[in-house]
Design a protein that fits this description.
heterotrimer; A mainly alpha (251); B mainly alpha (146); C alpha/beta (292); A: 251 residues; B: 146 residues; mainly alpha; 2 domains; elongated
Chain lengths: 251, 146, 292
C-alpha cells in the first residue's frame, strides 16, 4: 500500500500543478457568488435559496471536478508513454488505478471543502446562520464526487475523454431517477428498465439539500448509511474499471 | 473456482434485482403510515369535523393554503401552524414551521433521508456492491496472473 | 540449486485484432529463447519485426496469445520479480511538471529503496544530468529524457536490464557513454537484454544476438558463432584482356563456382582471402536484406 500512497501523492502534486483544477474551482465559486446576489428575496427565503442552489452548485461542481481531473489522466498517461515505466516496474495495475484515484479524490475533496467554505462565507455575509448539517451535506457530496470519479475512471479505460464527459454525465442524470421514473423512460419494456436500474446507483441517496434548505433535521445515522452506500458503490465501480484495465494490452 | 465466482456473482445480482424490484423505490414500497402522513393533499373534512393532522405546506409550493382542504366556515383546524410568508389567509391556522410536513409534498418526502424504512435496504445494497467489487478484484487478479 | 535464467521465452506468439476488419495481425510468431545470467543479449530486427511487442510480453504489458514467458522461473506480474528489473521503454517520457530529482525520490519510495538524495544526485551525474536535477522535465530534450530513463532503470541496481532502443535519440558521444554504463552494469552482475536496430552498438557490447524478422526468430547465437557462421571470402582478380582489376566478396558456398567461372573467362585470380564480417552482413544475409 506504500506504493499506492506515494503514487497518490504524486498524482495530487501533479493535479495541483495543472490549471484545470483552479479553473473549475473558480467557476464554482463564481456561480455561488452569483446565486447569493439574486435580488428580491426576503431574508428567510434568501437563506433557503442560497442553501438550495448553493448545495446544488457544489454537487454540479463535484461532477465537473471528477471529469476535469480524471477524464484525461489515463489517456494522457498512455499517449505520453508515462504509463509504461510505471506499470512495467514499480506499480501493478491495481496500484496505478488506486494511486491515481486516491490522488484525484483528495484533490476533489479539498476543492469541494473550499466551495463549502465559500458557501458558508456567503451565508455569513448575508447575516444568515449556517445550518448544522451543511458540513455533513458537503461530506455526502464529496462521497458522491468519489462515486463520479470512479465512474470517470471506469469509462476512461475504454473511451476517449470527449466521450467520457457525456457518458458520465448521462450516468449522473440517470442515477438521480427513481425506479418508477426510470421505467417511464421506456414504458414498453418495464422489466428491462428495472433490470438496468438495478445496476445503476441511487444517487438520490446523496441529496439532502432540500431538507437542509427547509430546516429539517437529518438523523446522523442516515449520513453514515449514505456514506457507506456511496463508498461501496465507488469500490464496485473501481473494481469494474480495474477489470477492464487488467484485460487491456498496453501496446 | 470460476463456478463459485459465477455462483456468487449471480446470487448477488439476483439479490440486488429483488431488492430493486420490490423494495427500493420509496413511492412503491412505503408503508401505509408513511403514505398516510402525506396523503392529505386532496382530502376533505366533513362539515363539523375537526382536522387533527399535522399538515403544513412547504411555503414555496403554497399557492393556496386551503388546497384540497375544505373546512366548514368558522371551523378551526387544529395542530396546523403557519410560517407562511405566502399565506395571506390565516384563518386556516397553517402556521408553517420549518421542519414539519405539509400538503402536496410527496416529492419532498419520497427521498431516502426521509424514509427510514429503506435505510436497512440501502445498507444491504451497499454490502452487495462491496462484495461484488471484492469478488471482481480477486478473480480478475487471478486471471491476469494465469 | 542454481537459479533459473533471468528470461525464458518459449513458443511466444502475439497477434492483434485488426480494427474494422476480420482477422488479426501476427506481430510475433512462435519465438523461443533464453537470456542467461550475466549475458548481454542483443535483440535485433528491422522496424516492425516484433522486438517491442516481445519485450512488452516479457514485462507483462501485453498478454501473450500463445506461449510462455518466465523471469527467473516466475511470472512477470510477480512483485518479487519486478523488483529485480530495470526497464527503459522505447521513446520514454515522463510527466513534465516534475523534476528528475522528484521523479527519482518518488520512484525510490514506491520501490521501497533505501537511497538518499545524495545517491540520486550521484546517479544523475553518472548518466550526465548534473546541474539538471531540479529542472522541470518539460525543458528536457529527447536525449535528456533517455538519460533520465536510464537513471530510473539503474536506481534499484537491477539484476536484469531490459532496454528497448535505448540509444535511439542520442548523439555519438552520449551513445558511447551509454554503452560504457551498460558494460559497467554487466560487470556488476546484471544481465542485459538490449533491443536495437543500431547494429554497431549491439556488435560492440553484446555477447549474444537474436535476430528477428517479420515476427519470427531467424537466428540466434553468440556473437562469435554468428560472425563465424557465415564465412565470406574476398576475391581480387584481373582480366587478361582489359587489365581491369575487380574485387568481390562472396559467401563460402558460392566461392568454388565463381573461381571456375573466372578461370573459364580467362581472368587471373590475384588474391583469395577471408573477409572480415560485420553484424550488419550477418543481419542482411539472415533477413534477406528486406522488410518482411
Amino acid at each position: 500500500m506504500k506504493a499506492v500512497f506515494i503514487f497518490a501523492l504524486m498524482t495530487l502534486r501533479m493535479l495541483f500543478r495543472r490549471r484545470t483544477l483552479w479553473g473549475i474551482l473558480l467557476v464554482i465559486l463564481l456561480a455561488l457568488g452569483a446565486i447569493s446576489s439574486v435580488p428580491n428575496f426576503d431574508v428567510s427565503n434568501q437563506g433557503r435559496f442560497i442553501l438550495d442552489f448553493g448545495l446544488f452548485g457544489i454537487e454540479i461542481g463535484a461532477l465537473l471536478l471528477a471529469l476535469g481531473l480524471a477524464a484525461n489522466l489515463y489517456p494522457r498517461d498512455r499517449e505520453t508513454r508515462t504509463l509504461m515505466p510505471l506499470i512495467a516496474v514499480p506499480l501493478s495495475r491495481w496500484q496505478y488505478l488506486l494511486g491515481r484515484f486516491f490522488g484525484a479524490a483528495l484533490v476533489q475533496a479539498a476543492a469541494l471543502l473550499v466551495t463549502c467554505l465559500g458557501l458558508m462565507l456567503i451565508l455569513l455575509f448575508h447575516g444568515l446562520s449556517i445550518p448544522n448539517d451543511l458540513l455533513p451535506a458537503t461530506l455526502l457530496i464529496i462521497v458522491e464526487g468519489w462515486f463520479l470519479l470512479s465512474t470517470v475512471f471506469f469509462f476512461s479505460f475504454f473511451t476517449s475523454p470527449p466521450l467520457n464527459w457525456p457518458l458520465t454525465t448521462m450516468l449522473f442524470v440517470l442515477s438521480q431517477m427513481s425506479v418508477a421514473e426510470f421505467v417511464n423512460v421506456l414504458p414498453s419494456a418495464p422489466g428491462l428498465m428495472r433490470a438496468v436500474r438495478m445496476i445503476l446507483p441511487h444517487a438520490d441517496v446523496f441529496h439532502i439539500k432540500d431538507p437542509i434548505a427547509h430546516g429539517f433535521e437529518i438523523e446522523p445515522v442516515y449520513f453514515l448509511i449514505a456514506i457507506f452506500y456511496g463508498l461501496c458503490y465507488s469500490i464496485f465501480m473501481l473494481s469494474l474499471a480495474l477489470a477492464v484495465f487488467r484485460g487491456r494490452d498496453l501496446k | 473456482m470460476m463456478k463459485l465466482f459465477i455462483g456468487i456473482t449471480f446470487s448477488l445480482i439476483m439479490l440486488l434485482f429483488t431488492g430493486c424490484r420490490t423494495d427500493y423505490d420509496i413511492s412503491e414500497v412505503a408503508p401505509q403510515d408513511f403514505l398516510d402522513s402525506e396523503s392529505h393533499a386532496d382530502h376533505d373534512h366533513a362539515p363539523g369535523e375537526a382536522c387533527t393532522h399535522e399538515e403544513v405546506l412547504l411555503d414555496e409550493h403554497v399557492e393556496d393554503p386551503h388546497a384540497g382542504h375544505d373546512h366548514a366556515p368558522g371551523e378551526p383546524c387544529n395542530n396546523e401552524e403557519s410560517i407562511g410568508e405566502h399565506v395571506e389567509d390565516s384563518h386556516a391556522g397553517h402556521n408553517h414551521a420549518a421542519g414539519t410536513r405539509n400538503h402536496g409534498t410527496q416529492w419532498f418526502f419520497n427521498q431516502p433521508w426521509a424514509a427510514p424504512f429503506i435505510w436497512g435496504k440501502l445498507f444491504r445494497d451497499g454490502a452487495i456492491f462491496l462484495t461484488l467489487g471484492i469478488v471482481i478484484f480477486i478473480i480478475t487478479g487471478r486471471r491476469r496472473r494465469k | 540449486m542454481s537459479e533459473k535464467p533471468p528470461i525464458q521465452v518459449s513458443n511466444l506468439s502475439k497477434h492483434f485484432a485488426r480494427k474494422r476488419s476480420i482477422g488479426s495481425i501476427q506481430a510475433v510468431s512462435n519465438i523461443s529463447f533464453d537470456v542467461n545470467q550475466g549475458e548481454i543479449v542483443g535483440f535485433i530486427g528491422h522496424n516492425g519485426a516484433g522486438k517491442t511487442t516481445s519485450i512488452k510480453c516479457i514485462l507483462g504489458l501485453l498478454k501473450p496469445s500463445e506461449g510462455k514467458v518466465s523471469l527467473w522461473g516466475g511470472q512477470p506480474a510477480d512483485a518479487e520479480v519486478r523488483k529485480r528489473i530495470g526497464y527503459i521503454p522505447e521513446n520514454p517520457d515522463y510527466d513534465d511538471s516534475f523534476s528528475p530529482m522528484e521523479y527519482l525520490t518518488m520512484f525510490a519510495s514506491m520501490r521501497d529503496l533505501s537511497g538518499v538524495e545524495s545517491d540520486w544526485m550521484n546517479l544523475l551525474a553518472r548518466v550526465g544530468l548534473t546541474k539538471w536535477e531540479t529542472t522541470g522535465i518539460r525543458q528536457f530534450s529527447k536525449g535528456m529524457r533517455q538519460r533520465l530513463s536510464l537513471a530510473i532503470a539503474l536506481q534499484s541496481t537491477p539484476d536484469l536490464l531490459i532496454l528497448d532502443e535505448p540509444t535511439g535519440g542520442l548523439d555519438p558521444i552520449a551513445r558511447k557513454e551509454f554503452r560504457e554504463i551498460i558494460l559497467e552494469e554487466n560487470k556488476r552482475g546484471a544481465s542485459i537484454f538490449l533491443s536495437s536496430h543500431i547494429l554497431s552498438d549491439v556488435e560492440t557490447i553484446c555477447s549474444k544476438a537474436i535476430i528477428l524478422s517479420g515476427g519470427k526468430l531467424i537466428t540466434e547465437g553468440s556473437m562469435k558463432e554468428l560472425l563465424g557462421e557465415l564465412h565470406l571470402y574476398r576475391i581480387v582478380s584481373i582480366s587478361r584482356k582489359t587489365g581491369q582489376e575487380v574485387e568481390e566478396i562472396l559467401p563460402e558456398p558460392d566461392l568454388q563456382t565463381r573461381i571456375d567461372s573466372l578461370r573459364k573467362d580467362n581472368v587471373s585470380i590475384i588474391k583469395i582471402e577471408l573477409a572480415l564480417k560485420s553484424l550488419e552482413d550477418v543481419f542482411m544475409a539472415a533477413t534477406g536484406g528486406d522488410h518482411k
